[in-house]
Amino acid sequence: MNEFVMRKKFLVILVSLLVLGSFIWAFGLFPVMRVNGEFILYRAYTDHVSAFELFQRQSSLTAGGGELTPAAQQTIRQSVLRDLIVHAVFRQYIGSHTSRGGIEERAHGVVDETLRAANADVLPRATKELYGWSVEEFSDNVLFPQALLNELQKEIEKDGASFDEFVRTELNNAQVSIYFVPWKWENGELAEK
Hints:
Elements: H1 2-26, E1 31-35, E2 38-41, H2 42-62, H3 70-96, H4 103-117, H5 123-131, H6 135-158, H7 163-173, E3 176-178, E4 183-186, E5 189-192
Antiparallel strand pairs: 1-2, 1-3, 4-5
Helix pairs in contact: 2-3, 3-6, 4-6
């Protein structure tokens, strides 16, 4: 009887692990990369890829083109991965350098001003059609990262430093591990595995 109970417990644990693993895989709740110790989930990566592929398809259709080629899809995936790395590196830099305080607040101010200036009737429809995102998702994933980068550039250049050199240094020093995609981080850039 004891052996039967042990087998039953083992089977329950095994099935539970399989269900949990399936759930994690299905919802992309596993890391696609680690940037300086911070994990970025596969789901965030695929959400961005889907949005930018939709944008490219919509742009291509408007211009009279066809579907995205596999090469174009690969370029989008690589670009999204690099953008997520860059944003993580600079967000971490800003968070660890209190002397750079206020950059995030200024970036949020730029985004708020941009949204106020946009046509409130058109913007929700446009972001949904072009990216498949709500205005808030568009703001968080497109407007804010760009505003943050612009504000950081102003701050770095205010001190007389070269922003391009700053970017190169920060990206070269970033500790990035990439999983489940065909690239690796090498010398501050993505390279084929």
